[in-house]
Amino acid sequence: ISRIGIRVLIGQYLALRQPPVENYVGIICSRTSPYEIVKRAVDDASFMCTRKYGDAPEVVVTGRLDMTFPYVPTHLHYIMLELLKNSMRATVDWHGVDSDFPPIKVVIADGNENEDVVIKVSDEGGGIPRSNVQKIWSYLFTTADPAVQEGMVAFNENVDHSVDSPLAGLGYGLPISRSYARYFGGDLSIMSMEGFGTDAFVYLTRLGNSREPLPI
């Protein structure tokens, strides 16, 4: 969390020294559209999945497609890309490359009285064994080929945040995604049904309603 805080402070300082961008205050966008960010994440995840398997599951997005709220778009894109990559890989591996894949479903929920903006990502990728549910939040835990980690021991931030990174196997996507969500008072939770699929819930607070969790 503290490292994310340092990156946010540096990013905000550098962004504020650049020419102003409409609806932005530094790295914070006052009209962040979850739908637009999900669409970008879908495109990126589909590209990465197709590169590895030759095909990718369809993603269906429903809910509040018109809503906007203050947030850091790069944080939300990272979270959604990680969840969609995981869902696509699980779906392809579970059903087989030559099968007709069930769609991955993304629901964006919000209301005037809602405490959080909530995004749910649901797949039918076979789920996670109960014995592994807690392990998924551990850094370097992965169900992918360990050779992927061995080939990327040297951390490269530019690769990690781009479509040049592998579809899976580094082992830090979910832990970092949860830290990004929690940094501004939100959260990320996973509910899985082994033998069927997984639901991921992203809880996001509107910036201005929460404080950064930094020690004083």
Key phrases:
216 residues, alpha+beta, five-stranded mixed β-sheet, three-stranded antiparallel β-sheet, 6 helices, 36% helix, globular
Structural overview:
The protein is of the alpha+beta class. It is 36% helix and 20% strand. The chain contains six helices and eight strands. It has helices at residues 2-16, 34-53, 73-95, 147-151, 157-160, 173-183, and strands at residues 24-25, 28-32, 59-63, 69-71, 104-109, 117-123, 187-193, 197-204. The strands form two sheets. It has a five-stranded mixed β-sheet, covered by helices on one side. A three-stranded antiparallel β-sheet has the order 1-2-4, with helices on one face. A hairpin with a 2-residue loop joins strand 1 (24-25) and strand 2. Helix 2 (34-53) runs parallel beside helix 3 and helix 3 runs antiparallel to helix 6. The longest helix is centred in the middle third of the chain and has 23 residues, at 73-95. The radius of gyration is 17 Å and the shape is globular. The two termini are 14 Å apart. Mean pLDDT is 86; it is low at 147-155.
